[in-house]
Design a protein that fits this description.
With 565 residues, the protein is mostly helical. The protein has 26 helices and no strands. Helix 9 runs parallel beside helix 11 and helix 23 packs antiparallel against helix 24. It is elongated and about 100 Å long.
């Protein structure tokens, strides 16, 4: 092994150690927020060898009718689940999931180092770029939050695809590109990054059209598979998550520009990070004089000018500028609307190429001003590492998550809703009611907030107020089964049998095999003295859900009363 290879292995080891070290304190975190929906509540996760179900299933399974198709990510989570069980742990035990996320981030950081070297950067510059990426606190959502796994997984595969592409390993590169697509949809952009890389390095494209044709076949095959599983793109984007769905086109583009400038600011100055940017944390931009939109336009012009000026002497700058734009575009809301207006996890891959610039810049300055420049780089690295370690605590447990969320996103209706849920679970009903009302003040058409307010009012035995809250929820979201069920329960408590029956029957219109609705109908029929109809309803509930204890209990009571007649 030569000195160059030895130094490269030392650098890879150092990058992996830093990437793992800054996330070591995340290993004890619990499943929080979407983790609890994605993993324990999703049956597809529980058997990694049912590949047919994984390949033919949505990312969220039946929990959420989303248009995400990420079977490779689901498979890795399912393997985690099975590994836990094989060790005698609960399948949803969090530590193994966190360990894999950290390992994937370390792999992505090492892949960036190798890619930077392949781009022609000197080892010190490539090492600086990879270390900054490994420690950058903007990545905490993608790494410390288990649900963010798709980001480092797609990054590892996408960067490895580029490496094999540069080495002329076309078949292996195509396979890795296909796997990256199965990890996350936005990985499709890596094909354009490969094309841009060849353009920036003056590679002859004429002889490579067959290669790109092969990659395109992989892309088309993935699109066909995704379409066959998801069908028509009929999933609605929630205006709460992405207010741009209701914005006019100029307002949408200006706001998207402001959001992109916010990403750039966080990459340079990562303070003010948040797990929530939903309505109304990010105000819509209506005019071009907005600081964020204007800042983004200025950044684009400066980056384009620098890339053009340095195109001959430093084509790497042009590659970084173009690749950042390509990787950020799929989730930018410029081209198509995505389910969220902003999320730090979405900047994971673009930040990798961004980190090449400060790494290259530190090396250039060190060449001119002396090695003392590296001391400044070390200070920056230590600052990033300290911020990352501190922010990992955001995902420590549910209480920490919601407290951090409302502190970082005080204008978010969802953050107030989360605090309301947490206070309700702790039995603090007055503060739970206050937080739900705060969510409704921010977003009056928030059906879930009306529903959760109704649940608090039920526990307060404020039946009329609860009836109004559940009524608002179903008026705003007519297919809200839980709200219909609880509305029926409130009517039962008030002795309004007909209103209760209407609520449960509406549930059956929406879901004819809903065991809870049939059970509710049976309870109403008991109150009305119609025991035969009650028995039929409870039998239907048990047909739909054989383990429904309440329906079984009531059916036994009804049979006993019928025999006593």
């Amino acid at each position: 092994m030569g000195d160059a290879d030895r130094y490269r292995w030392v650098a890879l080891t150092l990058v992996a150690l830093v990437a793992c070290g800054v996330y070591a304190n995340s290993l004890g975190n619990e499943l929080v927020y979407d983790d609890r929906k994605l993993i324990p509540a999703n049956e597809v996760m529980h058997d990694p060898w049912r590949l047919d179900r994984i390949l033919a299933g949505r990312y969220w399974g039946e929990i959420l009718h989303s248009h995400h198709y990420r079977p490779l990510t689901v498979w890795t989570l399912a393997l985690n689940y099975r590994a836990n069980e094989s060790l005698g742990l609960p399948g949803a035990h969090a530590v193994g999931f966190h360990l894999v996320n950290v390992a994937l981030h370390a792999g992505a950081s090492c892949a960036l180092l190798l890619l930077a070297l392949r781009l022609g950067l000197a080892l010190p510059a490539a090492l600086a770029a990879a270390l900054l990426f490994a420690a950058h606190p903007v990545h905490t959502e993608a790494v410390a939050f288990i649900t963010g796994r798709a980001e480092p997984l797609a990054m590892v595969l996408g960067a490895s695809f580029l490496l094999l592409h540069r080495r002329g390993k076309w078949i292996g590169a195509g396979a890795l590109y296909g796997l990256s697509l199965l990890g996350k949809e936005s990985a499709a952009a890596w094909l354009l990054v490969a094309l841009w890389l060849d353009l920036c390095t003056s590679q002859p494209l004429k002889g490579r059209w067959r290669i790109y044709g092969g990659y395109a076949v992989v892309l088309v095959g993935w699109l066909f598979l995704r379409q066959s599983v998801l069908g028509p793109t009929d999933s609605q984007i929630n205006a709460l998550d992405n207010p741009l769905v209701d914005a006019a086109l100029p307002e949408r583009w200006l706001t998207a520009a402001s959001v992109q400038f916010a990403y750039l600011r966080l990459l340079v100055w990562p303070l003010g990070l948040s797990s929530d940017y939903s309505h109304a944390q990010i105000p819509l931009v209506s005019g071009p004089l907005d600081g964020g939109a204007a800042g983004f336009l200025a950044a684009v012009l400066i980056a384009a000018a620098a890339a053009w000026r340095l195109r001959q002497r430093s084509p790497m700058v042009a590659f970084v500028v173009g690749s950042y734009a390509i990787l950020a575009a799929p989730t930018s809301n410029f081209l198509v609307l995505v389910p969220t207006i902003m999320g730090e996890r979405l900047i994971y891959a673009p930040s990798a190429v961004f980190c090449v610039l400060p790494g290259w810049g530190l090396w250039q300055l060190a060449q001119r001003r002396g090695r003392g420049i590296w001391a400044g780089g070390l200070v920056l690295l230590c600052t990033y590492a300290a911020l990352t370690v501190a922010r990992n605590a955001t995902w420590a447990d549910g209480e920490s998550f919601h407290r951090a969320q409302i502190q970082s996103a005080p204008r978010s209706a969802r953050a107030h809703l989360g605090m309301g849920r947490m206070h309700a679970e702790a039995g603090h009903l007055d503060s739970a009611e206050a937080y739900n009302r705060s969510a409704l003040k921010i977003h009056p058409e928030y059906a879930m907030a009306w529903h959760n307010l109704g649940l608090v009012q039920v526990r307060q035995e404020a039946w009329d107020e609860a009836r109004r809250s559940f009524g608002q929820a179903v008026a705003l979201e007519p297919a809200y089964l839980k709200a219909w069920y609880n509305l029926g329960g409130v009517h039962l408590q008030r002795g309004a049998w007909l209103e209760a029956l209407k609520a449960f029957e509406q549930m059956l219109v929406l879901d004819p095999e809903n065991a809870g609705a049939w059970n509710g109908v049976g309870v109403v029929r008991i109150r009305q003295g119609k025991l035969n109809q009650a028995a039929r309803a409870f039998r239907r509930a048990l047909e739909a859900e054989p383990d429904h204890e309440q329906a079984r209990h009531y059916l036994a009571q009804v049979r006993q009363r019928v025999r006593q007649r």
